[in-house]
Amino acid sequence: MLKSARIGLGIRWYTAKAKRSVLAQDQSKVKEYTPKVTDNHEHRVYVWGFQETGALGLQTSVKKAKERYTEMVHHPTRLQFSNNNEITDVTAGYGFTAYAVQRDDGETLFGSGLNTDSQLGFQVKGNAKDPSNLDVIIYPTAIKLPRRQEETDEDMQVKSMSAGRAHLVVVTKNGTVFTLGNNSYGQCGRSIIEDERYSGSALIHRIPQEDICGKEDEITHVECGQDHTMFLTKNGRIYTCGWGADGQTGQGNYHTAGQITLIGGDIAKEKIVRVTCSSDCVLALNEAGDVFGWGNSEYGQLDDSEHAETQINTPRALKLTKGIGRIKDVAAGGSFCMALTDEGLVYTWGFGILGFGPFVEQTSRPQHLLPPLFGRNDFSNATTVVSIGCGVFHMGAVNSDGDLFMWGKNRFGHLGLGHKKDQFFPFKAAINGKVSKVAFGVDHTIALCKPYF
């Protein structure tokens, strides 16, 4: 049977098959969309939170940096410095940030933010004859690590780094440890000097790896608490130094220690694969998925028994995490803890905004946060959490899609949700990239991301 169609004033006759042919789109004329890529770097960096210290590294104008409307950045904002440099790692201290970079000029470490204790090295302004020390650095600036003549640019690439309240510790690929900043409690791994002046100091302490763990082992990770430092080795040993008033050094006492010391307790015969701390409570994880802890336990973070100690100075196997499954990641905040099981389930406990709403602020037992809070739904039922982390007052989790979910205290806008209100449930931060690592400062956050395209 013939079909008809009116075209203009005439009539065209054609079959149903011909009609389909006429209406079919010419595939050769369909334009293929190619996204515009602004740079070819592997990582992008997004920053948000309190900006007045310069920790976000966004400003290039001192005048603008002092204006009130630039005090906070409430949304994740792409760091211009990452457009021009290949950034491989980030760490956030109390009001400052350090960036590990790969550059042709051999510089491997940059920093921005507070430099009142020379935690970002000796930074000067003015001419060489009359230098003036910079206490605040508003844009990422090179930190000159002292080299030996035979050391190459590859040797000086950053292997691991971490920042505390006012100190920075860096481990390079050739195994050298560099410590910068405040050493009032021995957190830089050197002897404590009475009345030492840290502002304007050019001292960067250098420690050979073998002086810490011997020639048969090597340092794989460094973790700074508020005023103490921990080194994790390939063989699963932990060495510590610094402030120990709450037992956070794990050395069996409550003293300060400038000498880096191997710790034992319940981890003496364990192979530890992860150690974490943002303040003075420490969690460690062995290869079997068992959790150990030491330090401050005033809110039952490490022990929920009736007569539990509030400070624990020796590593202890945690009983309260038994029964929730094999654990693959842990995080310790100021008054709370987190655990992630190999099934991708997130547990929190302690005191604070734990993610269960405004009416739950304390629990002595790990409680499970539901998977839909982290992006799992009927359309994406394979989505699961792959990593967790926290600052002193806030928490975060990254799922398998590369999305970051944040919750907790938000006084400085460091949750990146567009406001300063506290967030009682995990909420997705709008970041234009797949998040691979998050550095949680006390009042700012840094995310290392891979582009979608």
Automatic annotation (TrEMBL):
Domain RCC1-like: 217-450
GO CC field: mitochondrial inner membrane
Molecular functions per Gene Ontology: guanyl-nucleotide exchange factor activity; rRNA binding
UniProtKB keywords: Repeat
GO terms classed as biological process: positive regulation of mitochondrial translation
Residue windows of the RCC repeats: 43-103, 107-174, 175-235, 289-343, 344-401, 402-451
Protein name in UniProt: RCC1-like domain-containing protein
